[in-house]
Design goal:
The chain has 249 residues and is of the alpha/beta class. It has 8 helices and 7 strands. It has helices spanning 21-32, 67-80, 104-132, 144-147, 153-173, 191-194, 198-206, 216-226, and strands spanning 12-16, 36-41, 57-61, 86-89, 135-140, 178-185, 238-241. Helix 1 packs across helix 8 and helix 2 runs parallel beside helix 3. The longest helix has 29 residues, at 104-132. The chain is globular and about 50 Å long. 42% of the residues are buried.
């Protein structure tokens, strides 16, 4: 299969951090819309069976902080289906603690995973998108990049950095019909919130103008829009999916 191959079997989509939560919801959205989807995670397993065969779905073991594993993941997708046409850079971690207690390791791990690794996978995807003269890159930021949260200096810095990177890349690749955009979710019903008791979750939800947390599917729908033909003239944008939490920022 050559780099300029185009088929009617759906686009080739890669979702990093796609084993659960928002990433898995994105994978399901693309599958439901006829695309072929590969997801990466450190374990190589998803939290639920999507009931799709390897002709349309691949779950790959990949630590996005390891350049060799990133290259192997892309090579595996390309061997199976051809070059990645849609990249959803979703993999991320948190290591929350107050700045005065934050270790160099906690800072570096979050920056390496949430920012440097996104650059790594995006650069690899763009090498083939440029030859195709088409492509979509969607980076997963956070409302925390704009409002700031105590104990998340590392996380907020990494997620804010995605905005500047995306806008720089958007200018670099726009002439090849490639768009680069950012989605900034707010409170989302994922494993990160699963440990909260009902009262604490209600307290957080009360801060949101819409009065509730989002579902992963709601975030996935916005990602899907940015990857669609309808968003062909949208690039360098930041789309909040936060119920109004950071409006005006």
């Amino acid at each position: 299969m050559t780099d300029d191959t185009f088929t009617d079997e759906g686009r080739v989509v890669l979702v990093t951090g796609g084993s659960r939560g928002i990433g898995l919801a994105c994978a399901e959205w693309f599958l439901a819309n006829g695309d072929r989807v590969a997801v990466t995670s450190r374990t190589g397993a998803t939290e639920r069976d999507l009931g799709v065969g390897p002709d349309r779905f691949l779950s790959l073991t990949c630590d996005v902080c390891d350049p060799d594993q990133v290259e192997a993941a892309f090579a595996g997708v390309e061997k199976a289906w051809g070059p990645v046409e849609v990249l959803v850079a979703n993999a991320g971690v948190t290591r929350d603690t107050l700045a005065l207690r934050m270790t160099e390791e906690a800072w570096s791990e979050v920056i390496d995973t949430n920012l440097t690794a996104v650059f790594r996978v995006t650069r690899r995807a763009l090498t083939k998108m440029l030859r195709l003269h088409r492509g979509r890159v969607i980076m997963m930021s956070s409302v925390g990049a704009f409002i700031g949260s105590a104990g998340q200096a590392n996380y907020a810095a990494s997620k804010a950095g995605l905005v500047g990177m995306a806008r720089s890349l958007a200018r670099e690749v726009a002439s090849r019909a490639i768009t680069v955009n950012v989605v900034a979710p707010g409170l989302v019903k994922t494993n990160m919130l699963a440990g909260l008791d009902g009262a604490k979750l209600a307290e957080f939800a009360a801060q949101v103008p819409l009065g509730r947390v989002a579902t992963p599917d709601e975030v996935a729908g916005v990602v899907g829009f940015l990857a669609s033909d309808a968003a062909g003239y949208v690039t360098g944008a930041v789309l909040p999916v936060d119920g109004g939490l950071a409006m005006g920022l």
